[in-house]
């Protein structure tokens, strides 16, 4: 037996109090804290039977009093341990027998079973279920009603003490007395020739005449084996002083040849008296009643499996493997308790049938197969190798949180409710002492120190003397220009601060030396912080035209990964160059390689705004491969282009959704769809928790700081303020170092100029036509998708695109009938004013470029003209152009802005003309900063040409509104008036804007001034 029954009986007056204390100790998990053992629980809890607290005098008759008692007690009288031992001992169970108690109470029968893991039970009372689950954690106990209990296996024995004289309604049998239903349920769950042993009232099936119907029901299902009368005071410990009960034994019917069924007999084998000997009476019952039925049951189990195996079309190899595995399971002491379940699973395989309501396809997926049987048996046998459970509890770290774990059933019972509550690691770092987490003190001190260091705003940090000394001595030899490269004081200061943290974003304006900073950071990490290598990820043009050229020029050891085999060439101390396209292509292999290096690398993501779109493959690939590496540096001229939400993927790469990126925003914001200018706020469910990964995190970041993107139309209608700006400021202060070009190089040489031009009558006519008669022009410039609804939705967008094209080069439209457009002639005149200057012109579309090329060749035929597009001029030719252009002294570089986005520098060009606007200033600055570098000396003039009163006014206003957000991300909270001044906007732009409005029919229109144009 598992627990010893104490002879001392609990007074009736104390039973309720003790029951409540037991349940409190179990629910709170404090049994071990107050030195209460499982055996104490076994002896203290007595259930609800006999403690109803009702008074007979309060009821009109005994029937009403009895029914009230039944409702409270629910027939719950736990079987005294002596009777449980008698019944179990008489059955002489083996370790492999499957045994069920269908109303198990607190599980008294389980105390005497040879194998707890082979015990199955069902209990409807939650209090009794908790106690049973506490006492017998390895048993298979379900909380529920016996009427709905459906275990997946069949049992060798069902034993129990069912509730007496309760009336139950069942779907199958209608209303039935509880003890009879127990027998019917047992017949469903027993194997053929399985044995039912139970305690019932002596009045059950006592009168052949009055109980004739119930006797016939039992005889349809069972063969009667015998019965034994129990003492009248058997349940006296529960307050029932005299209630005649008996033991009954039945065997489930079988169709096997030669087996005979015995009818019911009211006579009893014997009558037990108080103080009976369990051992003697159990032996007597076994020999007189159970010996031969048990032999039939054991022979039947083996015979049924053999017969089924013969009749089943299974392979001979399968039969051999099954027999071998079952034999090893049966004889091995560590797993022999699994033998019965394995036999039952094999029996299910032989007897399974396709349910009528299941399709053939579903049946093929769910049915048991030979492979599943062998796998099941092999898993059972492998349990012989499991380590022995230790009776200890220990604090473990799993899934990003600390939690106490019990390594044995008794250890798990000792866990208190507070111990079972997990503590996230970030919470332990933020608000707990390391001593609260024994065994993890060193880890928590390290994490707290790192959190404190990473949380320092850069403006409050001081330089590290050791790093400063190394940076002062850091030099590179430029073999192309034959000169020594040094860091200036500002660069050394910022790099010093970056090297004191594991993660940082260096937001230096284009031309400030970010490549040089990346080389210095990588070299220091590898030489002084024992990092294996430095991995540089960027766009193809940046890697090929900049890093590949610069590292070779400086004589630095590096590996350019262009094929998978190149990964094998990486050695400690190398720079590793990878384009974003290659990261996407080699995502799995790179993740394995970085993991093989134990994440001990320095990541440099150059032009980090390339991963601003979280849905892009390149963004997902970079996050997948490098989010866990030891040190990360992101470099970019501008971390955002269009909206603040673009910063979220870069933040996720830097901090990996850890304690360093906790959402401290108390409220989230979104636009009210019913009120155009209204903002709704709601509580932040992630407040005080790390921002989650991927889409949830991006949505949370957006709702925290900027509910909606800036658009061409409607800028004036929606408030684009930055929400929770103080929280975002704190995050930027510890993450980003921002420098303008002037701050890094120590001189202000960049000047921006606005050049508004006016439409000629012919240009205005074609613009007006595009406004009023767009439907007629549409088919000349846009192809129909074949879907009317889709075409209708695209109409307004296409109209905007066409209006922008007219603003860039009206002569590219067939409806234009004039001479060279005013804007193009203005550019030509500006070129003519600077005959001795090298001038760059950047447009966005090839058709516009061709229009400017024709005009320049016509009006300035003697001026050298170089035309560059991304599709026609290779990277190598663009690099070679640097020297040619410089030697020409007064040539014109006409190119698309995207053909020179990064890495190809013309620091000697002083005049830049941009006649076609991008959708954000960052996109244009990527272009014009190719001509403004840290080694430039002359003033740089950048000219933006726009048609006043055209949609380009809207486009410029959108650029300026976005720049307000971008400047905030760079630590500058300025208003639009300040931005107008920076961009030299000195006219009333708002008066020239066009608006999008919706009419009463829900159709959109473009309004320009006082005129409404469909």
TrEMBL record:
Pfam families cross-referenced by the UniProt entry: N6_Mtase, SNF2-rel_dom
SMART domains for this protein: DEXDc
Chain segments annotated as coiled-coil in the UniProt record: 580-607
Top-rank taxon: Bacteria
Keyword Cell inner membrane: no
PANTHER family: SLR6095 PROTEIN (PTHR42933), TYPE I RESTRICTION ENZYME MJAVIII METHYLASE SUBUNIT (PTHR42933:SF3)
Name of the protein in question: site-specific DNA-methyltransferase (adenine-specific)
The species this protein was found in: Enterocloster alcoholdehydrogenati
